[in-house]
Amino acid sequence: MSLHELTDEQREIRALARRFGEEAIAPHAAGWDREHRFPKEVFVALGELGLMGACIPEEHGGAGTDFLSYVLAIEELSRADGGVGVTVAVHTSAVELPLLAHGDPDQLARLLPPLAQGHELGAFALTEPEAGSDAAALRTRAVPDGAGVRITGTKQFVTTGSHAHTLIVFARDEDGGAAVEPAGADGARRAPISAYLVRRPSHGLRVAREEEKLGLNSSSTAELTFEDTPGERLGAPGAGMRIALGTLDGGRIGIAAQAVGIAQAALDVATAYARERNAFGGPIGRLGQVQHKLAEMQTEIEAARALTWRAARLKQAGRPHTVEGAQAKLFASRVARHWTGEAIQILGGYGYTREFPAERYYRDAKVTEIYEGTSEIQRLVIARALLGEAARSVS
Ligand SMILES: Cc1cc2nc3c(=O)[nH]c(=O)nc-3n(C[C@H](O)[C@H](O)[C@H](O)COP(=O)(O)OP(=O)(O)OC[C@H]3O[C@@H](n4cnc5c(N)ncnc54)[C@H](O)[C@@H]3O)c2cc1C
After folding, report:
1. Which residues of 174-191 are buried (b: 16+ CB within 10 A; e: fewer)?
2. According to CATH, what is the number of the domain 122-238?
3. In the chain, which segments carry CATH 2.40.110.10?
4. Cα distance between residue 294 and residue 127, in whole Å
5. Which residues approach ligand 1 with their CB closer than 6 A?
6. Intra-chain end-to-end CA distance of the chain, in Å
7. How much distance in Å is there from the Cα of 394 to the middle of ligand 1?
8. What is the pTM of this model?
9. 157 CA → ligand 1 middle, Å
10. pLDDT digit of tens for each residue in the chain (395 aa)?
11. Which residues are catalytic?
């Protein structure tokens, strides 16, 4: 099968997500952005379409598609609205997939179906005020309490943090359990980190702040505090960083798809504008410099899409995809940030106003160079593999 060939099922999922994006998301995206509104009802509707658990097996309430189908859906949803795109991406690849991979039968039966059907939302809480790229420096603590733990600490920048029903929270075990993680970069042996599942509502779980952001205003990004909050372990004790890094390896492919979707939306608006806007006696699309921009933009978006699909196919095949996912995200996020800016340029003064969506795409695109590992961290991952050094624990 050639790189660009899709199966019938993949085409169907893409068409479904595109139609829903065009009809039910894109017409509202500017309003949600202005009002900073989290469109809960959209996720219910996406659940009914099978897009809140696209790549989750049917036995757990999902649609049972492959990983590339999920990635195609993220691109299309992000083309309509980047905020919806990231909410679905985090929900699926940072919550449902690690739950599927590491959950015990009881956790799968209880927690996965409502997420996969869109009745509930998920969040992934790794980052802390003092631990972002250096996630292994996290300080949130878990102390044993009966069959579970009590969690205390602060998590920063949690996507869907204000709305999620199931949260995966990474915390340091305070019972001195066996360390699976290697010593930190400084060589110090700290208490091991485990992944925990927290349900909302729960004792001591509080939204400390909803972040005001540059863009992605239809997504929720919250600071959460936990005070003796009950949690149950996900996966092996001390395996937290392994679970987090494995999750981000796949998650980055979804963020690359988000970047491709936002960049494609910018190309769509710039192309339409170049056909219609007249200057010096004809449409600006006949001007060489405008054509040059559009041609470069389309070519780089195609290249970003190809890298993203390659990484998705490797993940689907169960093959290593850490470097390929990092390459896809590094390149696609740069393409999105750069070309959304050039789309504004093609629209001239109108591009700088809210009358057109180009400025929103520009604001939304920037964060793809930051979350699920900054571009600097992606370069570290790629360079370390290239130079034969194991990729260290970075998020
Ligand atoms: C909108 C939004 C949503 C998010 N959603 C989530 C979420 O759902 N869950 C979650 O856990 N986190 C989430 N994050 C957090 C995100 O993953 C972190 O912001 C990111 O990993 C960077 O961490 P930091 O912000 O602490 O920056 P820092 O780690 O402090 O980095 C600051 C600067 O230093 C650079 N830097 C750091 N270390 C190195 C190094 N070793 N080499 C070279 N440069 C380096 C960085 O690249 C960056 O330029 C979200 C963030 C945002 C903005």
Report:
1. eeeeeebbeeeeeeeeeb
2. 2.40.110.10
3. 122-238
4. 37
5. 90, 124-127, 132-133, 157-159, 213, 216, 221, 367, 370-374, 376-377, 380, 395
6. 33
7. 10
8. 0.96
9. 9
10. 455 689 999 999 999 999 999 999 999 999 999 999 999 999 999 999 999 999 999 999 999 999 999 999 999 999 999 999 999 999 999 999 999 999 999 999 999 999 999 999 999 999 999 999 999 999 999 999 999 999 999 999 999 999 999 999 999 998 755 554 555 555 556 789 999 999 999 999 999 999 999 999 999 999 999 999 999 999 999 999 999 999 999 999 999 999 999 999 999 999 999 999 999 999 999 999 999 999 999 999 999 999 999 999 999 999 999 999 999 999 999 999 999 999 999 999 999 999 999 999 999 999 999 999 999 999 999 999 999 865 454 54
11. 372
In which residue ranges of the chain is CATH 1.10.540.10 found?
Answer: 8-116
CA 84 to ligand 1 centroid distance, Å:
20
Query: Which secondary-structure segment (H or E) carries 85?
Result: helix 82-89
Output the CATH code of domain 242-386: 1.20.140.10
* Count, residues in the chain: 395
Chain region(s) in the chain for CATH 1.20.140.10? 242-386
Give the CATH number of domain 8-116: 1.10.540.10
* Structural tokens at position 351: 């591009």
Question: Which of 371, 380, 393 should be mutated for ligand 1, with most atoms under 8 A from CB?
Answer: 371
Retrieve residue 191's tokens: 């208490």
